[in-house]
């Protein structure tokens, strides 16, 4: 889990300014991709080298050490680590018939992977949650990849883990705390779902984007937020205030087009069948306590 | 005015011309295998039709805009700011009607005459133009369009430009006249190419593009037709 844990193994001041490894395919199904790169030298800051370890056939990412001074740089972060696409907790076909296996496979193995590649291409990295906060202001210094592909990585990693096969999903339910907050904010679960579906309709969320249920800054209300492209409410400037998603739906056409084509509303209403409310409740408890975004795998 | 408003309310339109869903200039299966029949049918009879219908529904209850042409609505900054849904649907109706004409069975090749001359003057070569347009199409993040346009804003320094636009945006809103476009919303290619947008764009230039349509568009705005 990407945290600020300091697990650097090496710290080289003479590393080349840019150095990156090729994507490393560690399973036959390409579901696990890890890539690493060293930091770009910024001013007198040091570059890092990165250590990847294989454990039992799985590549494990090693986070690199933060150093004083570097941590103060926001817009041009120089803390290196490596993002990876996490394996799904379920097989590609597990969300059938609501989300089809080919869609899941391409979405995970191609679209999510592309975000990893582009987010890291030639750029230093920071903890993925930290990257979200300043993504909009980073665009002018680092180009759009932080916002677009850094967001794309967080959003997809978040999305995979909130879903479960329909048989399991239907046994899950919101915690009593989450249920109370839903009732307070929307009236009832059904009213929240109806409002969510309206926000996700093609006329309301035009083009590519996401719809989120978030906890507000005060921690006393749930809000619905629609974001364009790969933006999310953790990014400062996207909504009125930074908010913390507990549930999010990808409404890019690639998320549903093979099965539903132009019928986005059908995709949205079917999606409730694979929402893992236990995970959503965990997300809710986490952001309530920490006032921070939910960490994601990879 | 009140009378007209009442009539507009009950559905009588005063629009000079309602926005129409044009027939395709070819059959649904005519662009296969580059664009499959299923893609083209869904794209035209579902997506394009929905934009047209939604735009007309909105214009019915909005007599002040119903008098305007689609082009005027697209170019009107106030509409885009105050009524983005109207802008989105009108612009998408226009964009798709334009896009269909940019395609043809057994298309591809290169333009000729004045257009080719301007391409060589402004981009160096046809290949350079194609590369630039492909690049814009590939880097258009999310849903949008890549365009070849004519920028006549600076008199005496008119030139061809390649731009990408997001969502429903159209170069006319920026004073640029569209000559050619590629739809890079995922719905334009996802059933046939999935995530491989680059393959779709390559197929567009190799087998689909209708350069004579772009040549006609240029002719209609060259001297003698300078007022756009």
From TrEMBL, chain A:
Q: Which Pfam families match?
A: Sod_Fe_C, Sod_Fe_N
Q: Where is the Manganese/iron superoxide dismutase N-terminal domain?
A: 83-164
Q: Which residues form the Manganese/iron superoxide dismutase C-terminal domain?
A: 174-282
Region (Disordered), start-end ranges = 1-25
Keyword set, alphabetical order: Iron, Metal-binding, Oxidoreductase
A GO molecular function annotation here is: superoxide dismutase activity
Q: Which cofactors does this protein require?
A: Fe cation
Q: What is its EC number?
A: 1.15.1.1
Q: What class of enzyme is it?
A: oxidoreductase
Q: Tell me where on the tree of life, at the top rank, the source sits.
A: Eukaryota
Q: Give the UniProt family note.
A: Belongs to the iron/manganese superoxide dismutase family.
| UniProt cross-references to PANTHER family, sorted A to Z | 37S RIBOSOMAL PROTEIN S26, MITOCHONDRIAL, SMALL RIBOSOMAL SUBUNIT PROTEIN MS42
Name this protein carries in UniProt: Superoxide dismutase [Fe]
UniProtKB/TrEMBL annotation, chain B:
Which residues participate in Mn(2+) binding? Answer: 43, 96, 183, 187
- Enzyme Commission number: 1.15.1.1
Biological role stated in the UniProt entry: Destroys radicals which are normally produced within the cells and which are toxic to biological systems.
Q: Provide the protein name.
A: Superoxide dismutase
Please tell me whether the keyword Oxidoreductase is annotated for this protein.
yes
Family matches, as Gene3D superfamilies = Fe,Mn superoxide dismutase (SOD) domain, Iron/manganese superoxide dismutase, C-terminal domain
* InterPro entries registered for this protein in UniProt: Mn/Fe_SOD, Mn/Fe_SOD_BS, Mn/Fe_SOD_C, Mn/Fe_SOD_N, Mn/Fe_SOD_N_sf, SOD_C_sf
Which cofactors are named for this entry? Answer: Fe cation
Q: Does the keyword Isomerase apply?
A: no
Domain Manganese/iron superoxide dismutase N-terminal, by residue range, is: 20-103
Give the UniProt keywords, A-Z.
Iron, Metal-binding, Oxidoreductase, Signal
- Every copy of the Manganese/iron superoxide dismutase C-terminal domain together lies at 111-216
Q: From the UniProt annotation, give the residues forming the signal peptide.
A: 1-17
Q: Name the species this protein comes from.
A: Cyclotella atomus
Q: Please list the reactions this protein catalyses.
A: 2 superoxide + 2 H(+) = H2O2 + O2
- Taxonomic lineage of this organism? Eukaryota, Sar, Stramenopiles, Ochrophyta, Bacillariophyta
Which family, according to the similarity comment?
Belongs to the iron/manganese superoxide dismutase family.
Q: Please provide, alphabetically and separated by semicolons, the GO molecular function terms listed in this UniProt record.
A: metal ion binding; superoxide dismutase activity
């Amino acid at each position: 889990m990407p945290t600020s844990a300091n697990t650097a193994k090496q710290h080289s001041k003479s590393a080349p300014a840019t150095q990156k490894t090729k994507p490393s395919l560690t399973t036959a199904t390409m579901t696990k991709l890890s890539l690493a790169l060293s930091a770009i030298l910024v001013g007198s800051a040091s570059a890092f080298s990165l250590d990847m370890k294989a454990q039992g056939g799985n590549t494990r990412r090693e986070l690199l050490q933060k150093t004083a001074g570097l941590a103060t740089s926001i817009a041009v972060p120089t803390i290196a680590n490596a993002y990876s696409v996490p394996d799904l907790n379920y097989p590609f076909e597990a969300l059938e018939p609501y989300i089809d296996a080919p869609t899941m496979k391409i979405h995970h193995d191609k679209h999510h992977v592309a975000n990893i590649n582009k987010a890291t291409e030639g750029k230093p990295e920071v903890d993925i949650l930290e990257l979200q906060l300043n993504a909009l202001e980073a665009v002018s210094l680092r180009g759009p990849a932080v916002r677009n592909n850094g967001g794309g990585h967080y959003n997809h990693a978040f999305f995979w883990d909130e879903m479960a096969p329909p048989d399991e999903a239907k046994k899950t339910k919101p915690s009593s705390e989450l249920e109370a907050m839903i009732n307070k904010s929307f009236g009832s679960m059904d009213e929240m779902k109806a409002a969510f579906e309206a926000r996700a309709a093609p006329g309301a969320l035009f083009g590519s984007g996401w719809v989120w249920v978030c906890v507000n800054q005060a921690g006393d209300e749930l809000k619905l937020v629609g974001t364009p492209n790969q933006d999310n409410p953790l990014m400062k400037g996207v909504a009125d205030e930074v908010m913390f998603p507990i549930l999010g739906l990808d409404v890019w056409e690639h998320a549903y087009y093979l099965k539903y084509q132009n019928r986005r509303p059908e995709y949205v209403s079917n999606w409730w069948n694979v929402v893992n409310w236990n995970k959503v409740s965990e997300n809710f408890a986490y952001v309530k306590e920490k006032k921070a975004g939910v960490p994601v795998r990879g | 005015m009140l009378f007209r408003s009442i009539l507009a309310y009950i559905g009588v339109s005063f629009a000079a011309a309602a926005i129409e869903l044009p027939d395709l200039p070819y059959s649904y299966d005519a662009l296969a295998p580059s664009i499959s029949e299923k893609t083209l049918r869904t794209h035209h009879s579902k997506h394009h039709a929905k934009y047209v219908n939604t735009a007309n529904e909105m214009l019915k209850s909005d007599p002040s805009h119903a008098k305007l042409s689609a082009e005027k609505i697209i170019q009107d900054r106030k509409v885009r700011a105050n009524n983005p849904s109207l802008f989105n649907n009108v612009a998408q109706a226009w964009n798709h009607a334009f896009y269909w004409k940019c395609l043809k069975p057994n298309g591809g090749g290169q333009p000729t005459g004045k257009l080719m001359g301007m391409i060589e003057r402004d981009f160096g070569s046809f290949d350079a133009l194609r590369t630039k347009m492909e690049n814009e199409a590939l880097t258009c993040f999310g849903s949008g369009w890549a365009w070849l346009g004519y920028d006549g804003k600076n008199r005496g320094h008119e030139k061809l430009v390649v731009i990408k636009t997001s969502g429903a945006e159209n170069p006319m809103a920026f004073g640029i006249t569209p000559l050619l476009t590629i739809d890079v919303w995922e719905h334009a290619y996802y059933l046939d190419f999935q995530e491989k947008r680059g393959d779709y764009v390559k197929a567009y230039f190799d087998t689909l593009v209708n350069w004579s349509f772009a040549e006609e568009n240029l002719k209609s705005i060259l001297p003698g037709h300078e007022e756009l």
